Amino acid sequence: MSEEAPGDATPVDDAPAPAWAAAYLSPGQLGIDRGLQWILLVYSRRGWDPSRVNVAQRLYVHTVGRQRKHCNPSIASLAEDCGISETTAAAAVEDLEAEGWLVVVRRRRHPNVYRLAWPGDDRHPGDRQQVPRCGAPTKKGGVCTRRAGRGTTTPGVGPCVLHGGTPAGPRVLSGPVEDSVEPQPLGSNEAVGPVDNPPTEQSSTPTAGEFDPNHWSVEPQPLERWTPTIGVEYVVSTSTSTKGVHESRVLAVGDLEDRNARATPAPPAQPRRSSRLRAHTPAGILARIPRYRPLLGTRYGWALIALLKRALAAGYSPEAITRYAEMVIGEACFQEHQHVPELRYALARLRRDADLGHTCRTCAQDPAICTCAWTHDQDITLDAAALERALAALGADPHERAACLAAARSAA
User: Is 41 left (phi over 0), alpha (psi -120 to 50) or beta?
Assistant: First the structure.
C-alpha cells in the first residue's frame, strides 16, 4: 500500500499551508494548526454542493479530531454520519480527491485510507473579487483587514471610519417628498363621522337584535342586552345562529349549568367485569396475593398462572389456594426471587393435606369443623362406626353418643 500524494496534492502533515492560502486566511489564522487551516479553506471554497463540505468535515473529525494522520471510515459510515446516500458520499470523496483536498489510498478488501492534503494551486472559484482593505496599522501591531472606506463617505477607497476616514452622514432620500396625506378610514372611501348608538330600554329578559354580520353600514345596529334577572322566569333564546350574536348569560328552561355536562351519564367505553368473576381466575388469584401481584404480565407471572390453572382444574378453590400460598410466604422458606418454586411447594402441601383428609379443598380448614360439606348439594354417606369412635375418644357417654348418631342420621 502506497501513501504518495497523487498529482500535485501534498499531505497536510508533510508541508505547511501553500502561499495562495494567505488570500483566504487572516494573519492570525495563518499561525494556527494546519488541520484547522485546511477546514477553514474548505469552508471558504464556494460553489460546492453541501454534501462535499459535510464529507470533508467528517474526515476532518476522523483525523484531526482524533489526533491521527489518516483515517479509514467506510463509505457507508460516511453516508450515515452525513445523512446522505452512499452514492453521494462516494461522489463527494471523488470530487475532493480530484481537486487535491484528499489523498485516497484504495484497498481491495478493506476501506480506503484518507489523508488531508493541500491542493497544488488555488481551487477556489475564479470569479472571487479582491476587495481592497483598509491596511492601516492597529494598536496590536497588525494590519486592519476591514474593507477600504467602510463607514465613510468614500466606500471602497481610503481608510475605514476607525482609522481616519470621514464618517458618512445620515442617508437622505433622493427625489421630491410628497405632502402628508390624511389617513383614510378602512372599508370606505368617504370620511365617516362618529356614530352614537341610541339608548336602549332596560329589560329583564335578553333580546337578540337582528344583526347582519355581512352588511356594512354606518347606521346604528341594535345591540343585545341583558340585565341581572331575579324572580323572573327563564326564557328560551330566539336566536337561530351564534355567528355575530353574543350568547345570552341567562339560562333557558332545562339548560345545564355546565356546557359540557350531560343530561344522562354516558356509559363506560369498556365495561369492566365484576371483581367476583375475576377473583376466581388465575390472574385474579395472583392479584389477591401482594407478593405475586407485581408479576402479572411477566414471564414469571405466566408460569404462576399455569400452576394455578392446574390447581383449579384439580378441584381446589381459589380461597384454599390463596390461604396456603400466604401461609408458605409467611414461613419465608424461599428467597425473594423464588416465586415459582414457592407457589409449587404451597400447592403440593395443599394437595397432600387434602389427600390425607387434614384440610378441605374448598375452604382449607379442618374437615371436622368445616361446613362446606353440609352446604353443598351432594349426597353424604354417614360413617357411623367412625363417628362412634370419634365420640368415644372425646369421652362422651352412651346417651350422648346415641343422640349424636341420631342427629347425624337425620341430617344425612
Answer: alpha
